[in-house]
Design brief:
This protein is mainly α. It has three helices and no strands.
């Protein structure tokens, strides 16, 4: 707008001074020829072109710069959003790593507890089995002694053997047991 006003004022001042200026001589100079009319026509033409084309060109470049600024702003927003998402993902990763470490530690503790419980149960079962084996061994020993004694008493002792002394009975029982 300012340039347009300056061009109009310059045209309004220069045109009358060029047209009305007169020289006393008749020789043909640059100002007496048709050059001044050509300059005047060029100035008017340039002013019309500027008047008709300046606003659309300005609007185009303003729109273009605003479009670029808007796209740049969108890109910056997307960049910031992706940075925020990355930070959130890193925080989630750190939390997941901590949780994984806790889970591994808990699993190790549970394994130790289970191993201790199994060892205690096995020790208890082993002692019970040993006790049962001893009891069974004692029972079998008693059964063997009873059967041996029954066998000795039923088959080896007759009326003639009743007078036998104690050492003979012990030797007979020892022979049968052995």
């Amino acid at each position: 707008m300012r340039i347009k006003n300056i061009a109009l004022i310059a045209t309004a001042v220069l045109v009358p001074s060029l047209v009305l200026a007169s020289h006393g001589e008749h020789h043909v100079t640059m100002f007496d020829s048709d050059f001044k009319y050509r300059v005047l026509n060029f100035i008017i033409f340039a002013g019309l072109i500027y008047y008709l084309v300046a606003n659309p060109i300005k609007a185009f470049f303003v729109g273009r710069s605003q479009g670029i600024a808007n796209r740049l702003k969108e890109i910056e927003e997307k960049l910031q959003a992706s940075k925020n998402e990355r930070l959130v993902a890193e925080e989630n990763l750190a939390k997941a790593e901590e949780k994984a470490k806790e889970l591994v530690a808990d699993a190790a503790n549970e394994a130790k507890i289970l191993a201790t419980n199994i060892a205690e149960k096995n020790a208890t079962l082993l002692s019970q089995l040993e006790k049962q084996a001893l009891e069974k061994q004692e029972l079998e020993t008693k059964k063997a002694m009873r059967s041996t004694i029954d066998e000795v008493l039923n088959s080896g002792i007759t009326n003639d053997d009743i007078t036998v002394d104690e050492s003979k009975v012990i030797s007979l029982i020892s022979n049968k047991v052995a």
